[in-house]
Amino acid sequence: MKNQANLPAVKNIVLVHGAFADGSGYKSLYQSLTQQGYTVTIVQNPLTSLADDVTATRVALDAQDGPAILAGHSWGGAVITQAGNHPNVAGLVYIAAFQPDNNESALQWFQSMQPAPENGVLPPNEKGIVYYDKARYHAGFCADLSEEDAAFMYASQGAFYAECFVTPITDAAWRNKPTYGIVATDDKSIHPDIQRNMYKRSNTRVTEIKGSHAVYISQPQKVAAVIVEAAQEASL
């Protein structure tokens, strides 16, 4: 690990997970970033509403001892869009993530293109919870991981409430913060062209990485490199 005196000015990273997953998926990304001297906090979203997830993220940001890069995967992109105006946020990184604008919801973007045949997002049940079809989870969410890892991810995911998906953004942080985006080119959960369309609209600096929707697990070093770039440029 780097000597503390050699750390960049922006040394804190806050990671926000998405739907149909939890914070444990960030382990390899955490290891890559901490080995480079960064302090990493992983938010465990309740996935009960946009407001609840934003609150959990702001609690983590409140605890930072200085500026931080805020990164979100998938649904976590909507969360960081709303939470990212926190004064401790020096930049945003979207990892195969939704990036709505004001008065837009994640669902609007999800529906903007025909889903891939492998996509397994099911309609909400009678309790308003959205699940991912177990039979399609591996192919649709994390095809470049082992069956064993996919099974663990499926077992450890949180219950995702449909209210999250339909709630519009009211204060899009990417309008005011340096913003980076990762397109997962083999993504079957959020079509890569949806990612490209969102990022192009917002003038996000884009990096394309070959990987599934779980690119943050299958390609942690490449994802870490984008986050480090954001941290280094925010330090200038």
From TrEMBL:
The keyword Cell membrane does not apply. This is Alpha/beta hydrolase. InterPro entries: AB_hydrolase_1, AB_hydrolase_fold, Sec-Metab_Biosynth_Hydrolase. The keyword Hydrolase applies. Residues 13-226 form the AB hydrolase-1 domain. GO terms for molecular function: hydrolase activity. It holds the Pfam family Abhydrolase_6. Transmembrane segments: none annotated. Keywords: Hydrolase.
